[in-house]
Amino acid sequence: MFIRQPKFMKRTTFFTLNTLGTKRGGLVKAVIKRANTVAAAEPDRAVHLLTLGLQTQIDSTREEMIQLDLLNPHVQVTNLIHTLGQQKANEKQTKTRLLKQLNRQFVVFDDASRTDNDSYRVFDNGVYVQYLRFDAMDRLVFIDYFSDTRHRLKREEYLENGQLFQIVYYSTTTNKPVSRQFLHGNGTCYLTLWHKMNSVDWSHLFYFGKNEQLQFNDPAAFYTFALNRLLGQYPAVMLSSEFRDRLPNLPKQNLDAVVLNVNHPNIRKVAFGHSNHFVSPFDETATVSGVWNTLFKRIDEWSAVITATSRQADHMKQQFGHASLFHSIPHAFTNTASGELVDPVNPNRFVVVSRIQVKKDVAESVRAMRRIVDHNPNAFLDFYGFGYNDQLEKDLLALIKELALTDHIHFKGFVTDMREAYAGAVATLFTSQSEGFGMAILESMSYGIPVIAYDICYGPAEIIEDRVTGRLIPKRDTAKFAEAAIDLMTHPDARQLMGSRAAKALEPFSDQHYETRWVNLLETLDAQTD
């Protein structure tokens, strides 16, 4: 059998994320999908998901995702802060041993309120002093320590192997973290992190290496330093920048600056645009959002810039030139039940699948539902997703109450089985003001559920054919949006035909097309020489 030999060394590939988990939004899902696809298509390429955020038990997260079939076992998961330390297992940190020791000296109560976690409260002569949590495998997760007045003083976080990894110190007035120490397996500190006072934002980091001690006044500079150390172990690498957000761990410069400042003799740097790059009204008439400034001002330093739609790539080329840098690779969605329209339609049910976030504008779907319910008092909306318990979520709940829709809008939480969300709905309501693609549109259509969406940048018009596979409504026209929903609700045969066409219209977004585009791009980057 002839086996094609690669002409060039395959670059070790690092796709960046801030955090990784089973309950995440569309960006994280998209990056995981890409990593899984590349790892399956090219088993001889080392593929890493590289996380930047604070995740002590990252190995457990990877194990869980593999067990849930969310992550290809060939995809490695690396946390950048972990790479700076040296681990050493502590087999003495077992649940049985620790509780036995504690019960000799203290009174220990099982925290029965935490049915999903094995947790314990520890008292010394009636004073609450410690709180312990173990995972499902009886491994110690953390220990909280308290003052006599029940203020949390510090938390010790442990790796899966029992090693003390991180100590977090808290303000006794705000209960927010003030500083953190990260430890080697021998107990010595290799990194200290300070938080900005009364904030979760990072301010200063201090690295204590064997031969060098460094201070960083900007977390972005620290991350570039850590990446230089990590990537220096590999002869040829590809590093992605996946998000532009200002985050607590990147409060000054964003990830684009981190990646572009990395020094490596054989590196390819790729930026992926998961979101719209304009400010309001989020189209080509608007100015470019400031968080994209680094990407575009240093455009010639990228090896490639990827978008999920050709329309966004075209807008970038027109404004910034460098046409050869831009590539469009639409997302793909796998659904083995695609085209099997077996679920009976509930003529009153609509769904929204979204995070509660400003640009998602879930409140607009609530305003549309008021009009829909005025026409059909039995109509209701099932909301799948999550919020952040912030003011935006509180405002959404207040709007639902104000519009007398409490009995018509049901919050279902986060689900991994998307059929549960979409099956049997009249339509999915998609009211985002701004998107980079709109993965929920593909998901819904794959189950034969038409999508009613505002015609925004970017995604809906690239996926939906108006009045054939779904509905495209002029932006911010709530009345027409509701009319489209009522029309589908009152014409079940037309709605059924539209859903059937939607399920059959996804070939351009197939796994095969997606795999081919990414493999071809990576092979092109492999072949590039400086």
How would you sum up this structure, described in words?
The protein has 530 residues and is α/β, with parallel strands linked by helices. It folds into 3 domains: 185 residues, Glycogen Phosphorylase B (Rossmann fold), CATH 3.40.50.2000; 91 residues; 158 residues, Rossmann fold. 30% of the residues lie in helices and 25% in strands. A 10-stranded antiparallel beta sheet has the order 4-5-6-7-8-9-10-11-12-13, with helices on both faces. A hairpin with a 5-residue loop joins strand 8 and strand 9. The chain is globular, with a radius of gyration of 25 Å. The two termini are 35 Å apart.
Helix content class: 25-40%
Low-confidence stretches: 1-5
Give the structural class.
alpha/beta
Question: Which CATH class of the largest domain?
Answer: Alpha Beta
Number of helices: 15
**Shape, please?**
globular
At the third CATH level, what is the topology name of the largest domain? Rossmann fold
CATH architecture of the largest domain: 3-Layer(aba) Sandwich
Radius of gyration equals 25 Å
Let me know the CATH homologous superfamily of the largest domain. Answer: Glycogen Phosphorylase B
The average pLDDT value, as a whole number, equals 93
- The fraction of residues assigned to DSSP E strands is 15-25%
Please give the number of β-strands. 23
Largest sheet: 10 strands, antiparallel
Distance between termini?
A: 35 Å
**Strand order within the widest beta sheet:** 4-5-6-7-8-9-10-11-12-13
Whole-number tally of structural domains: 3
